[in-house]
Amino acid sequence: KKWAKDAKYGMRWPGTEGIFSAVKGIFGEETRSKNIDNMVHEVKRKFWAYDRMRQYAEV
Known about the structure:
mainly alpha, 71% helix, flat
């Protein structure tokens, strides 16, 4: 357990987790796509839309 504490194993970076939480809160956790490639595209679109919303809010 000492190595885990020293290596910060299991610790998630707060900035990343906050973004994931915000995207899932807005768009939901599930994808409608069944094909893995389409799932990846769908998730990329969700993050793109979230980024655009944040940019718009900063103006």
